[in-house]
Amino acid sequence: MIPSLKLKPNANSRVLTGHPWVFANECIELLPAAHDGAVVECRDRTGRFIGTGIYNSKSQIVWRRLSRDRVTLDAAYLRTALERAIARREGLGDFKRLVWSESDDLPGVVVDQFGDTLVVQVQTLALDNCTALISELLTELVQPTEIIFRNDANIRKLEGLPLEVHTRSGATWEPRWVKIDGLDYWLDLQGGQKTGFYLDQRLQHAAVAKYAAGKRVLDAFCNQGSFALHCAKAGAAYVCGLDSAFDAVGQAKKNAERNGLTAEFVAANVFDWFTAQREAKPVWDLIVLDPPPFAKSKSALDGALRGYKEINLRALKALAPGGLLATYSCSHHMQDAQLREVLAEAAADAKRRVHVIEWSHQPADHPVLVTMPESEYLRGYILRVE
In the chain, what are the helix, strand and coil shares in percent, each to the nearest 5? Predict the structure, then answer.
């Protein structure tokens, strides 16, 4: 008999309205640790069946739904989930997110495809126990030349899991040049940041670059320089990229040289750089702000909102009249209305008239589960500043 987790009588749990998570403080009592990593049922205070999910008493999120039906986490379930995830992304090319966690009924599993190589992250105990089976199924269904398991994110510690990186073959995946959207990038999929490249911004690289011809472009928080390089390729008059990470700046320079593009990259704290330029005449025609998440937890949101306002305010002041600001947030704790309010406040303080030209969110290979706000994290605006 499958054990059941029961919600408190007064629990106002989001799982009752379709959210896939149950937190420890929403349960009458937790199951013994012997059930960690197992499939258990969840029931409301009346005993009504809510769904089948995976359990881990070590995590604050003790239950993550697999299905509203009774299912078993076996080869058949994994095959069906993976086949559906792959089918959802048909026609999206060979560089994409192939599996997106709860959005694809595989809680804690993320799979990115880089041509003939897959990069897999597994962040839940139950699915970690299925790693070998997931590897076999991905090999059969996608036929990659290699699968890299990047299980080195600190979030695994919350599930009681070790941090580790390995490949399916056992061999080291050596860094190499990989062509993505017409540009060569030096990628280290086994040792680079996260899964090696931010696939979620590919469409925005093109969206921003179409405004770059003849313009002076500043790419703040440039990482490997993707926005800067696409703008340079599109005919920008001058391109400068900023990032606080020296290794990222070094890589951006190598990427520019490899592609025969002219762009300057500077290692600098972006906030400090704007402060140092505050007395300068606003000369930039196009500024890109694509920072890392300022709000990594709900408790950090207020400080993050202040940070987003400040960096956007500084960018607005640095833009020449008629310039464009492409600004993004990758924190799921910040909602659309909050980002819009931040931008309105920054515009008011900068005394600039600002119009929305384009609005964006994460692409189709990162599908948003409408009952799970946490699955939506990326949003942005392209603004005209007068």
Answer: 35, 30, 40
- Give the CB-side neighbour count of residue 180, counting CA atoms within 13 A: 30
> C-alpha 229: how far from its chain's center?
21
Q: Are 231 and 219 in contact (CB under 8 A)?
A: yes
Which class for 204: exposed (0-12), middle (13-18), buried (19 or more C-beta within 10 A)?
buried
The structural domains of the chain, ordered by start, are: 4-67 (2.30.130.10), 75-173 (3.30.750.80), 198-385 (3.40.50.150)
Nearest to 126 by CA among 174, 161, 79, 173: 161
Residue 222 designated active-site: no
User: pTM of this prediction?
Assistant: 0.94
Q: Report residue 49 as tokens.
A: 């069946």
Tens of pLDDT, residue by residue over 100-137, are: 999 999 999 999 999 999 999 999 999 999 999 999 99
- Do the strands 319-329 and 264-267 form a parallel or antiparallel pair, or are they unpaired? unpaired
Q: What is the DSSP letter of 15?
A: G
Spatial distance between the Cα atoms of 15 and 372, rounded to a whole number of angstroms: 10
Q: Residue type at 317? A: K
- Report the range of poorest mean pLDDT among 37-51, 186-200, 364-378: 186-200
